[in-house]
Amino acid sequence: MSSYSITEPSRGMKWTAGLLVVAYALITLLPLLWIMATGFKSTNDAIAYPPKVFFEPTLEGYVNLFTIQNRASAEQLAENPATTWYDRIVQDKGMVISGPSRFGEMFMNSVIIGFGSTFLSVVLGTLAAYAFSRFRVPLKDDLMFFILSTRMMPPIAVAIPIFLMFRAVGLSDTHAGMILLYTAVNLSLAVWLLKGFIDEIPREYEEAALIDGYTRFQAFVKVVLPQAATGIASTAIFCLIFAWNEYAFAVLLTSGNAQTAPPFIPTIIGNTGRDWPAVAAGATIFLVPVMVFTILLRKHLLRGITFGAVRK
Amino acid sequence: MAEIELRGVTKRYGATVALSDLSMTVPDGAFVVLLGPTGAGKTTLLRLVSGLEQPDEGEILIDGQPVTDLTPAERNLAMVFQQYSLYPHMTVRENLAFPLRSPRLRTPPAEVARKVTEVATMLQIAHKLENKATALSGGEMQRVSIGRALVRQPAAYLMDEPLSSLDAKLRADLRIELKGIQGNSGATFVYVTHDQVEAMTMATHVGILDQGRLVQFATPRQVYEDPVSLYAASRLGQPRINILPADLFDGAPAGAASIGLRPEQIVQGEGDASRVIRVEHLGDQTRVHLSFRDHEIVTVTDPHTPLRAGDSLRIRPERPHYFDTDGARIA
Fold this sequence. Notes:
Helix content of chain A: 55-70%
CATH superfamily of the largest domain in chain B: P-loop containing nucleotide triphosphate hydrolases
Shape of chain A: globular
Structural class of chain A: mainly alpha
Strand order of the largest sheet of chain B: 6-7-8-3-9-10
Distance between the termini of chain B: 38 Å
CATH architecture of the largest domain in chain B: 3-Layer(aba) Sandwich
Strand content of chain A: under 5%
Largest sheet of chain B: 6 strands, mixed
Order of helices and strands of chain A: HHHEHHEHHHHHHHHHHH
Strand order of the largest sheet of chain A: 1-2
CATH class of the largest domain in chain A: Mainly Alpha
Helix content of chain B: 25-40%
Strand content of chain B: 25-35%
Order of helices and strands of chain B: EEEHEEHEHHHEHEHEEHHEEEEEEE
Oligomer: heterodimer
CATH topology of the largest domain in chain B: Rossmann fold
Number of strands of chain A: 2
Shape of chain B: globular
Number of helices of chain A: 16
Number of domains of chain B: 2
CATH topology of the largest domain in chain A: MetI-like fold
Number of helices of chain B: 9
Largest sheet of chain A: 2 strands, antiparallel
CATH class of the largest domain in chain B: Alpha Beta
CATH architecture of the largest domain in chain A: Orthogonal Bundle
């Protein structure tokens, strides 16, 4: 007779559960894999019907994404023989590269604005959440609700006033303006999330530090911050994901200088509206930073999204 | 090495009054034990002295200097909390070194290492120094938190039931150790406990708190032998003092409502008859539960007593305490 536990699932149950999870993961990942595959297709393969699952991979999409090209005559092509692999890809189509595209710039804008606003949101959010958690703040509950209410309005409703204000103070289409805007939107989330985490940290730790000869700020840095690391990491991920993917404000408030990647990627499709591989390549590259950031903080995120339910 | 004085201190939390117009002087080098049931204000008193809370009224002085406006760090006190006191993200060593490394002390690293080792050895946790604070048993955590207070030489030590989660043997060891530290260093201790033995063995003074008021402040002997009230009398003594209606025995003074009898105030073999209900051999003492005119009395008897349940035993009060209807001592 083998031992039997009512809390431990049987071998068969584990296998079934495992298969279900794998199947679900495949279904949800499929669109993502399709985008990644499309980035390596030729323009014709990308819009072929029926869709091609197996195809000859090419870097044409990536080259189109990063370059501006002009049509060239046969003589021009003969005068400038291709010297690099990307020149060759372009010249095979009867084109020459006339310069880099602005994708790199827009991508960097996304990085600066996304990480900048995430950093600010988390720093300000942690300080505010600590104050709300520990000090006697007059009208605390009303203020917390007020902070949350800033998130209730859809971007489109506030975009025009913000546009006018930004123009008046010279923040239109600047990195600083977009960082401020995303920080303002993310702060409500950051304060609420972090307050929950800091509430969970017993005050006795700080009190012990106060008596051990530290000031309140030193106690905050040495004792509270290390224990709020989980909350800070998961809040940072949520803030970055929002700022990184934000589209409405980016379309309405930026044009060239501080434009982020989301409004730029659709324009890559070109005049003919056929260059899906370049769009897919842009989307694939755009995915990478958030994925890397999330994987780096994955351990914290898993504990974070359960909101303290499995703490300790 | 400090005298702590509270003058007319009142502390309220909303509608509840935690401490009410409390005045007390802890002499330099004294070991004061605060006694009282949960909610009597013992912990509040420690928190006010430490500076974690501000009094609503009154003043607190350390060595004659008002400290009400000083931060906890500036008061230079060490405190052992009842729970949650170890920094969970640090090792035992880092926990013990934390007060020494504070910006106020800035102890050189060699000195930190020496003191940490010294305290860890004394508290028998030297082998756990590199453990995470969360990977300790309850008793070990408690010892580390005592250690964190002992690494410093503060003006006074405040301790909130520091030995409560330790086993009997360790508790006895640490009791002697703490008393030794107090004796050698002449440090001032304010110590909260529920444990009679701790109170009787360690205290130079006992403060009895009742609903935020200090009802008696005296040496443990004095509180035991000469309690000001029924309440104070019930705080000390094992078995507890027997409280009976005053008219149960002859000779009660006028106005007495109840009579208090400690075991040594009950003479056995003389007086009126009572019936033995139960004999308990506790090892260090032997208790007899008696039924006397429908009232139960618990007293202590000879370890090798031949008494058994159902036997008859004559008892007589000797110099008992008498209390009036409000519980105040009248004789």
